[in-house]
Amino acid sequence: MKKIILLLIGFLSFCTLPAQHVQGIVWGVAPSGEKTPLAYAAVHWHDTHTAVMTDDNGRFTIPLPATWPAMLMASFVGYNSDMRSVTNDTAFVELLLYEGAELDEVQVTGRQAGIYNSRLTQLKTEVINAAGLQKMACCNIGESFENSASISVGYSDAVSGARQIRLLGLSGIYAQMLEENRSDMRGLATTFGLGFTPGPWLESIQVAKGIGSVLQGYENITGQINLEYRKPTTPEPLFLNLYLDRFARTELNAVSSLQLSGKLFTTLLAHGSIDPMKTDNNNDGFMDEPSKKQINLANRWLYVADNGAMLRFGVKGLYEKRNGGQLDFDASRPRDTTQYGTGIENTHINAYIKLGIPLVDTITNIAFIADYTWHDLRSFFGLKTFDGTEHTANLNVLFQSKAGRQHDYMLGGGIRWDRYRQGLQDVWFPASGQGAQREYIRLDRDETVGGLFGEYTFSYHDRLWIVAGLRADYHSLFQWLITPRATLKYNITGSLILRASGGRGFRTANVVTDHIGMLATGRQISIDEPLGIEDAWTYGGSIAWYFPLFQDDRASLGFDFFRTQFTNQIIVDQEDDLARVHIYNLDGQSFSNTWQIDFNVAPLERFSLMATFRYTNAQTTYRNNRRRERPLNDRFKAVLNLQYATRMNIWTFDFTTQLNGQSRLPDFAATNGNPYSPVYPLFFAQVTRKFRSIDIYIGCENLFNYTQRDPILLASDPYNTGFNSSVIWGPLMERRIYAGLRFTLFN
Amino acid sequence: MKKTLTFILCCLFLTAGMVDMQAQTKKNEAEVTFEVNMSCHNCKKKIENSLPHEKGVVDMKVSLEKKEVWLKFRTDKTTKESLQKAIEKLGYTATEKANDEPAKQKT
Lengths: 747, 107
Prior knowledge:
The complex is a heterodimer. By secondary structure, chain A is mainly β. Chain A is built from four helices and 45 strands. The chains are: A mainly beta, B alpha+beta. The A-B interface holds A 42, 44, 49, 51, 73, 75, 77, 108-110, 234-236, 604-607, 640, 642, 644, 646-650, 653, 655, 657, 681, 690-693, 744, 746 and B 1, 5, 8-9, 12, 15-17, 19-20, 23, 37-40, 42-43, 45-46, 48-50, 52-53, 57-60, 65, 91-93, 106-107.
């Protein structure tokens, strides 16, 4: 009788269980595609503390959430997390965790390094994480690369304040900027684009060196710089950052991530900054940096549907105005030869939508990505005026699946439409004394590019990955563009990783904005012939070795080499003719070879050291078969970064020193027969103190006050052909002392 | 230039060494490990943001994987119970773990 009652109770409780609990199973998916139940995985309702663990058979029973629908998340070390929306009529939930999410060194050791080489990516990738973004002032992404030897940061000229980066010894225009893996800041936005994303908006930056996937188009040549924003799913309703420096540059950043329901998430991002002070420390009559103001707003959304489909969409808008030139320049007066000033106004709007739908067994996915960008640039440099407007629309469809145990493939197609309306009013004063000469150059261009692409990944026992990709695009101006690419990653042992990659990339030049510095000269701009599409091959490889050293079980030593060889390149030649800037297609060889060595160790708990050295040899053939070292390209860069934190990171001390190698000076700028700029060191230091919810930091850039003396040639006569402010190889700003605070409100 | 670098390096190593020596448990310090129902990185972040600023806390390690919070504290300034309450105040459950299994590993 007792038994019967017990059985009855057991049966009843089993029947009633679904009403109070949600049941399900967590599967682990091996790289081969094989599914096995995953024991001891953590399952929890998103944004709550209700969590359970799966049993030996991967099954779980979790109490009902407070509200419907709710997001159920599963995670397990070494696997990617999965998240599903669950409604009150869901009978049984299946969660799939994909194997292969090895933990990166930062997560494993809790080391302080803010920049590290990822072990997981197919390409050699430097990751600048949240800690790295907080190491320096990092007001914008142009300022977050000071710890990296791979990237050199400089100015395009001494008057516009446009920051330029160099990756693999080549201008940043050959690296593709990505916003969460979607192409961003291209076209007319490239020039000032590094200043268009505030550092405090970001969670991390990944710099992948060498040729990447065919998925994002054919435009990446030297690498990809991907920006990951603060996530809408992070329960931080308010993050604030306030920054102030000795030049009165003031910045305010605010980010709010809100979980509106179990399915709908949003992030609001805002930035306002003003850099009002006019300084002229070298007494050449010109401002060292333009005064500027910027307002930047973004709103990003994520919607997760019941079937696992994810919809992401967002919009971003920016306005920036900068004024530079002579200190006493009065913008309200008509522009004439009695004064020299610059004015640059950028307005940018971007909207995007991304939809990912899991099909059948969730191993197959289909995705749609669409975006639209409008960019408007109005500028003047003395009497030269350049105005441009860009409309870009993109649509991509992507299908991703597996075929068998070791084969992944991706197929897709896309169409891009670009409309550029650009006009350059060139004004110059010939040495013959003829007075002002004028020419109006129209640079309008419409491009429509349609393409198909495929990428196949072969993976063998979590040790070897071979990715082969091909895309074929039909370009309305340059006809067929065929882009083959391949990468290999081989984990020779658990601690020795070999990578190799190679492939082709193309790029249509926006010749004025790509080389905006040439407008800040007294010369005539001469586009000598119809310009072709830039076409280059990049190949290279790297080896990384991880080993125990002192108390660090993952010290690392890495070496890499990359070579970019141009088939066609747009050459901007200031050396052939001292009265003109000549622009023409490459006729001959142009290449860049880069060698780099990295060393990382955390010799004591909470103390880390990173040392890296890069050497570059970049040569280009100029007109009349002159093969020269590319001017204003630093031959080497060495970086040493030390960070120490006290217990619980209450105090953090950062110190970075760089040794910047010599750059070849253009012939006309070489002084005393010395064709090279000097080798110079730079020092950076920052101290951060953490309080509950608030971090306060104080720091200094260019600690020992090193600047390039007289960066403007013939500053006294800005309408002479010899006037030139584009010969920049060193820092323009003196020691910058800054302070800031970060406030985080946790939910 | 070289001298400056050597000097800075020496200073950093010395400071690091000194602070490391301080890391050894003093007389009036005790350790405790709590099992905490953290389920995500944000929970870890929330605990790391708040607990170091509790009165008497001198060191802390949080392991999300093991769901453990290890704390070193000054016995004249706080107690295990008040630390447990501080964790619970953040919305988590905290149960003290036996002494033989401290979570003082790298997180």
